[in-house]
Design a protein that fits this description.
This protein starts with a helix and ends with a helix. Helix 1 packs across helix 2. The chain has one domain. The protein is mostly helical. The protein is built from six helices and no strands.
């Protein structure tokens, strides 16, 4: 095998392992961004409950039209299901299941998000607002934790990807 073939192979190995490390890093960043979008959604939903007093399905359908919440797929999925006549709590649960597939959620994160389906439209406005504020606070904490994890581990994953590739190349050559 020629030197140039070995060099090209080494570059491909390092590039592939670097790409894997980069992908892990990007997943961490996306989770933080999507939780930020969810946090914003709950702030707006709180205002909608307080000022519009619309039924839950109408609030969700109204918010689903806003492009700001595109990163929180649960809203659009829930709205589509509500438009088909499925009850809000069931539609919200399905939306959260889809969001969980998109972003790897912890059990606590998933339960907090699902709790919104149990609050919206079931209680008086004051109790709904308190419940939504509680969800906002917990999601804010989860978002901060996800951002910290990205800053702590994101660079580590990228560096380890490069080093792993270099290690494999050193062993092969």
């Amino acid at each position: 095998m020629t030197v140039s073939a070995k060099l090209i192979g080494a570059v491909f190995i390092i590039a592939a392992s670097s790409g894997i490390g980069f992908c892990f890093s990007v997943k961490l960043k996306e989770k933080a961004e999507k939780l930020r979008t969810a946090e914003e959604f709950f702030k707006v939903a709180e205002s909608e409950v307080l000022y519009t007093m619309l039924p839950s399905a109408e609030i969700i359908c109204r918010l689903a039209k806003d492009e700001v919440f595109d990163g929180f797929c649960a809203v659009k999925i829930c709205a589509k299901m509500c438009e088909k006549g499925i009850g809000f709590p069931n539609a919200w649960e399905e939306g959260i299941k889809a969001f969980e597939k998109e972003v790897s959620l912890t059990k606590g994160e998933k339960e907090t998000l699902e709790n919104f389906g149990n609050i919206l439209g079931r209680y008086d406005i004051e109790s709904q607002i308190k419940g939504i504020k509680g969800i906002e606070e917990r999601i804010s904490g989860y978002r901060e934790s996800a951002e910290k994890e990205y800053f702590d581990k994101g660079k580590l994953y990228r560096i380890l990807g490069v080093l792993f590739g270099a290690g494999v190349v050193a062993v092969i050559i």
